[in-house]
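[recover] target loaded
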């Protein structure tokens, strides 16, 4: 039981640190005719190296689906726009030592409960994090309408290597079932 009490908070914290990825598209859109794309807006951050990495990672994912990057959006089947937004957020973590008792039969320290009225100790920590969000939009160049959108959000680390890995993993996840209706998206 003590093992579960120690492991569960660690699993919960790990789950909170993961990127959140969502995609959306216009149902009924035929992606099979799209073979070329052009960037109309590339992502910009305070780190130009990260900007270039994001563009390269998105280009790689689209190339794996048979799409080719061309210079002009006028000659492309689709146009891409990517935006990065950040926001500072306060997070509160509360940890309990699980040593309290008095919660009824079978609950509490050592499995002895019942009426002592003493609780365990909890510690709360407030910390500030920066949440980064990458939004990738794909437009049909003929209709000028948005046809697909992917978003990925996650905590930005002080470690650049961690940010590179997390961003790359989020982009791979974003394009995992791309294009909608393809064989890979139905798995």
């Amino acid at each position: 039981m003590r093992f579960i009490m120690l492991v569960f908070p660690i699993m919960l914290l790990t789950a909170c640190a993961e990127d959140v990825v969502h995609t959306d598209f216009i149902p009924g859109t035929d992606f099979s005719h799209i073979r070329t794309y052009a960037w109309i807006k590339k992502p910009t951050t305070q780190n130009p190296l990260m900007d270039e990495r994001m563009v390269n990672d998105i280009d790689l994912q689209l190339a794996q689906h048979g799409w080719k990057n061309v210079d002009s959006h006028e000659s492309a089947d689709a146009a891409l726009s990517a935006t990065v937004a950040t926001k500072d957020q306060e997070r509160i973590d509360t940890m309990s030592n699980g040593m309290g008792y008095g919660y009824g039969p079978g609950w509490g320290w050592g499995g002895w409960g019942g009426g002592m009225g003493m609780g365990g100790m909890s510690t709360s920590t407030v910390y500030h994090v920066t949440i980064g969000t990458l939004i990738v939009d794909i437009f049909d160049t003929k209709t000028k309408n948005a046809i697909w959108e992917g978003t990925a959000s996650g905590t930005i680390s002080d470690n650049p290597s961690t940010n590179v890995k997390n961003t790359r993993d989020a982009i791979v996840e974003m394009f995992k079932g791309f294009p909608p209706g393809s064989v890979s998206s139905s798995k």
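[recover] notes: The domain at 16-94+127-186 is CATH 3.30.160.670 (Double Stranded RNA Binding Domain).
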